[in-house]
Amino acid sequence: MHRKTKKPVRAAKPKTKKRDRVAKLQTKRRAGVAIPKRRQFSGPPQLEPGAPSDLDLMLAIQASDPDALSQLYDRYNGILKALILRVVHNEAEADDLLQEIFMEIWNQAKNFSAQKGKPLGWMVTLARRRAIDGLRKKQAYARAEERLQHEIEQQPDAWVHNATEEEIVLGDTRILIRKVINGLPPAQQQAIDLAFFRGMSQREIAAKTNTPLGTVKTRLELGLKKIYDGLKELRDEL
Amino acid sequence: MNFEEFQNQSRLYVIGALEPEEVEEFERARRKFGKKAEDFITECYGLHEAFALSLRPAKASAAIKERLMSMVRARKEPNPRGPSSNRLIHPG
Q1: CATH number of the domain to which A223 belongs
Q2: Complex ipTM above 0.95?
């Protein structure tokens, strides 16, 4: 594992199991100690009381309400821009794509169905597809490839983040999810990163990483299953 | 393909990582397992959301929202000349 060096003070802290952390939180709750509110692990950012839900906003967009789109933009532009940026590696292109994607959200809202998932999932799927299409169309692909290659060499496990126990107890969606992802061996992280953020097929990943196709398939299957199970466990724990 | 194998394939499917020759077999299994399969695939799309949420949010340029909203409002505004004004008028 190519993990970043931890800060000495934090590295000295003993690791605690999830079960212990939950028990600690329960003890604090029983003792009436105020615990910072934890974000929903797979939901939207915490909303103010009375604020419309994502679904409310989607329904309003379906009814052609521009203010609903404006609110949805304020809520999610940061997340979607980060995703696009991760794909195209270019700030100006990411901004242009972000605008196109929100326009597509406006135009395609009628195709959204709450039975098939949550609004954020739908938007992310749409944004990812659009960003990968954009990447493939543009000549910048080769340059982005170079930058990506450089990143892989510099930081093979780019998702790695040293989440401290304090951060986890305080809770932050991003850190919780990253912790699950970071639990994977770097080779599995890399395969998933190339598939999800670069839209690469198994064969392309095999060629790029000089790995047998069967190994790539196994890495993807194992890695995705671990993330899926890890997220499910988090959901149950919360 | 049993359901466990289908589950593994579903996770690859939602991120677009199935090879073309695997998609056909996957679609057959999808039909075989019916609603159970559809529910599982829907659940797997949650991975998209999780991957996006694992990234540090980025700041978009302020001009983007302005441009977006003006485009949306322009599309929403009805044509002042009425819907028929763009049609070709055929003589006779």
Answers
A1: 1.10.10.10
A2: no
Q: Which of A64, A177, A184 to mutate to test the interface with B (most CBs of B within 10 A)?
A: A177
Whole-prediction pTM: 0.72
Tell me: the pLDDT tens digits for A117-134? Answer: 889 999 999 999 999 988
Per-residue pLDDT tens digits for A98-122 = 999 999 999 999 999 888 888 999 9
Closest to B72 (Cβ–Cβ): which among A69, A85, A180?
A69
Chain B residues near residue A221 by CB distance under 8 angstroms: 8, 11-12
- DSSP at A184: S
Calpha distance A40→A56 (Å, rounded): 18
Q: Is residue A69 part of a domain?
A: yes
CB contact under 8 A, A125 and B48: yes
- What is the C-alpha to C-alpha distance for residues A163 and A182, in angstroms, rounded to an integer? 10
Query: Has residue B92 been placed in a domain?
Result: no
- When pLDDT is cut at 50, 70 and 90, the band that residue A27 belongs to is low
- B→A interface, C-beta within 8 Å: 7-8, 11-12, 15-19, 42, 44-61, 64-65, 67-69, 71-73, 75-76
Domain span at residue A226? 159-238
Yes or no, beta carbons of B52 and A82 under 8 Å apart: yes
Each residue's pLDDT tens digit, B10-44: 999 999 999 988 999 999 999 999 999 999 999 99
> DSSP labels for A30-84?
HTT---PPPPPSSSPSPPPTTPPPHHHHHHHHHTT-HHHHHHHHHHHHHHHHHHH
